[in-house]
Design goal:
Blueprint: E1 2-5, E2 8-11, E3 15-18, E4 22-23, H1 35-48, E5 54-59, E6 62-67, H2 69-78, E7 82-87, H3 92-104, H4 111-123, H5 129-136, H6 140-149, H7 154-161, H8 167-173, H9 179-192, H10 196-214, E8 234-236, E9 243-245, H11 256-264
Parallel strand pairs: 4-6, 5-7
Antiparallel strand pairs: 1-2, 3-7, 5-6, 8-9
């Protein structure tokens, strides 16, 4: 097995390690591991063998998985007793970096997973944003965007991961600094499956309403601590063309009366 370290090309020995001598990472890299994908990988290994050995590091007389957890699980599923591996002495920081970069090469990572890997590379791996970009091939904009996203509460991130609302829409709604109003708009966005264009309309209207509440016609500043009064926002029903408040709109943009007609024929 060949890998590049600095400017040197190093040949590493492939060993055969017993599965019962290997410990999985304390914090499993993938937030969700699809059993069907593991089954497919197991079938591939059954047919053609393991094409790429896993990477382990020595740990208290045993071995800790660094890269290749899915290959390890596939071997377990096949009932195999050992696996081809490269054993490399790595400290905790090096392990975080290798593990993070290896997992970022996976397909179908959720935004939450990808963001968590970037955070780990920076905070635990000690890499700068520029180093993260150089090692992963990602742009600074992508890395910064997903690190920003990783700071949101879990319920918000899960909605984006499940594609109930897009990351673009979240970025627009995040301009609403009031946490209660943000939640109001975000919940509506999830329920309605809105586009970025609609999200932009919502936020622009909210900001205009807020500015109109805070400032007088004469250009004066905020008047005391008066609460922000948010005006209802209406969109056009696509069935009867009547106005309907956005909180009651569904993804097909019909008013409640037309929604009943559509549902019941």
């Amino acid at each position: 097995m060949v890998f590049f370290g600095g400017d040197l090309m190093v040949l590493e020995k492939i060993e055969v390690i017993k599965l019962d001598q290997i410990d999985r990472p304390v914090r499993v890299a993938r937030e969700s591991i699809d059993p069907e994908k593991i089954r497919e990988l197991a079938e591939s290994i059954r047919e053609v063998g393991l094409l790429e050995p896993v990477l382990l590091r020595p740990s208290n007389g045993r071995f800790e998985m660094v890269a290749g957890d899915r290959r390890y699980l596939a071997h377990k599923l096949l009932g195999l007793k050992d696996i081809k591996a490269i054993v490399r002495k790595l400290d905790d920081r090096e392990t975080v970096i290798v593990r993070g970069i290896e997992n970022l090469q996976r397909e179908n990572l959720t935004p939450s997973e990808e963001g968590a890997f970037y955070v780990a590379l920076k905070e635990e791996g000690g890499l700068s944003t520029r180093e993260v970009c150089r090692r992963t091939g990602k742009t600074e904009k992508t890395v910064a965007r997903l690190i920003w996203f990783s700071k949101f509460p879990e319920d918000v991130r899960r909605a984006v991961d499940r594609k109930e609302v897009s990351l673009n829409v979240l970025e627009i709604l995040a301009e609403v600094e009031d946490s209660e109003m943000f939640k109001y708009f975000f919940d509506m966005a999830v329920g309605s499956g809105i586009s970025s264009t609609v999200g932009r309309l919502w936020v622009d209207d909210y900001l205009k309403t807020k500015a109109g509440t805070f400032y007088t016609e004469g250009g004066g500043g905020p008047s005391g601590n008066a609460p922000v009064e948010v005006k209802p926002v209406f969109l056009t029903c696509e069935v009867c063309f009547n106005p309907c408040e956005i909180g009651k709109i569904r993804s097909v943009m019909v008013c409640p009366d037309c929604n009943k007609k559509v549902r019941h024929g």
